[in-house]
């Protein structure tokens, strides 16, 4: 699964870049949408996206091998993150910046209930946003969201467990 999926993702990224190249040029995106910051070309996605997919799919396969019953949850998490990332990209493209801000902030609440730091969430989110932003910026954003999500998901549960122990 890992190799096949990585090859498919690489081929789709190459097709996207080929289409962009023939349709006016491959875009570059500034960090934080600030023209004063460095711009990252979508061409970097041809290197970064297959590497990210290969690594994350390996983590997903290891977890699935340890718990075969987790496959439906993994597919659901991947699909939900893909939809979330695509919706965020569509709203950004449509100029709905208030909605994108709300969605980004809602990840803190979502992280209370779902482990958004897991590989399937990160991969789905990055793939959902790649069409609009290339692969590098969504990867950076996903890393930040995953780190914050891990602190929230694990930290809040740890604090809650400690409070329950103190109450006894």
Would you summarize the structure shown here?
This is Tripartite tricarboxylate transporter TctB family protein. Helices cover 77% and strands 4% of the residues.
What is the fold's blueprint, element by element?
Blueprint: H1 2-22, E1 28-30, E2 39-41, H2 45-66, H3 71-93, H4 97-113, H5 119-133, H6 136-167
Antiparallel strand pairs: 1-2
How would you describe the overall organization of this protein?
This is Tripartite tricarboxylate transporter TctB family protein. Keywords: Membrane, Transmembrane, Transmembrane helix. The chain crosses the membrane at residues 40-57, 77-96, 102-119, 131-160. It is globular and about 65 Å long. Strand 1 (28-30) and strand 2 (39-41) form a beta hairpin. The protein has one domain. It has 168 residues and is mostly helical. The model has no long low-confidence stretch (mean pLDDT 94). Helix 3 packs parallel to helix 5 (119-133). The protein has helices at residues 2-22, 45-66, 71-93, 97-113, 119-133, 136-167, and strands spanning 28-30, 39-41. A two-stranded antiparallel ribbon has the order 1-2. It is built from six helices and two strands.
Supply database-style keywords:
single chain, 168 residues, mainly alpha, two-stranded antiparallel sheet, globular, membrane, Tripartite tricarboxylate transporter TctB family protein, transmembrane helix
